[in-house]
Amino acid sequence: MTIPSMLRLICLAAIWGGSFLFMRISANALGPAYLMEARVFFAAVSLLLVALYMKKKVNFSAHKQHFFIIGFFNTALPFLLFAYAAQTLPASILSILNSTAAIWGAAIAIVCSRSVPTLKIVMGLICGVIGVFILVGFDQSHLAQGSGVAMLAGVMAACCYGIASNYAKNAPKISSFDNAHGSMWAACLIILPLLPFMPIRVMPDLQISISVILLGVVCTGLAYLLYFRLIEDVGPPSALSVTFLIPLFGILWGYLFLNESVGWNTAFGALFVIGGTMLVTGFSVNKILNSNRKEQHEH
C-alpha cells in the first residue's frame, strides 16, 4: 500500500469514526428521522455537485428498484437505527457495534447459501458475539439508563449492512459512484414520510447545525468518494481494513470531545469484535502485503 493510499485509509477511518460523534451531538435534539434526513440530503447534494463537475449522469429511473433496495438496507434503515441508539449510547460503543457488520454479512451468507462454515469463521462469529455481550453486560451505568434497546438497535443496524453486502453480490452491475449517489436520493425519499411522526425536539443551535452538515457532507458524501477511490487503488481486501480502524477513532473522538470514559469493557469488547471481524473476513496483513507486491509487479 502506497503512502497516499495509507493516508486515505486513515482519513476515512477518522471520518467514519467521527460520524458517531456528530450523531451523538445531534440525535437527542433533532430525533432520528430529521437527523438522518438531513444527513442523506446533504450527502446527496454533495454527490450531485461532484457528479455535475465530473459530468456524470445517474439513470435513476432505469435502476429505481435497485437504488431503493440499497437505499433502504445500506442507508435509511441502519442510519435511523444508529441515530436512535445515539440518543443513549456513547460514540465509542456505537463505532464498535458498527464493526460487527462484516460478521453479520458472513453469517447471512452462510444461511443463504446453506454452506458449512469453516472453523475460522465459527471462531470469528463467537468472538463477535462475546464482544457484544462484554459491551452490554458489564456496563451497568448504561443499562440503568435503558440502553438495552439502543444496543439492540445498533446491532440491527450492523445487520442491515450485512444484508446489503449480500444483496450487492447479485445486484445489477452499476458503478460504485452511481450506487452511492442513487441510493442517497432513494434514502431521502424513504425517510421523508417519517418526519411528521418524529418531530424535532429542540431547534438546532450552531454546534448541532455544524455537526449535521459535517455528518452529511464529510462523513457520508466525502467518505463514500474516499472509500471508492481506495477500492480502485488497493482493492477491496485492503480497503476492508478500514473496518478495524473505525472503532479506534470512535473511541478517541468520544474521549477527546465528549469526555466519554473508556472502561475495560469497552476496550475488551472492541478487541473481541475486531478480532472476530478479522477471522470472519479472512483479513491477513501478509495477504495484503503479498497482494500489493503482486500489483506493483504487474505494473
UniProtKB/TrEMBL annotation:
This is EamA domain-containing protein. InterPro entries: AA-Vitamin_Transporters (IPR050638), EamA_dom (IPR000620), EmrE-like (IPR037185). It is found in: Membrane. Residues 9-136, 150-281 form the EamA domain. The chain crosses the membrane at residues 7-27, 33-54, 66-86, 92-112, 119-138, 144-164, 184-202, 208-227, 239-258, 264-285. Pfam families: EamA. The keyword Repeat does not apply. It is a multi-pass membrane protein.
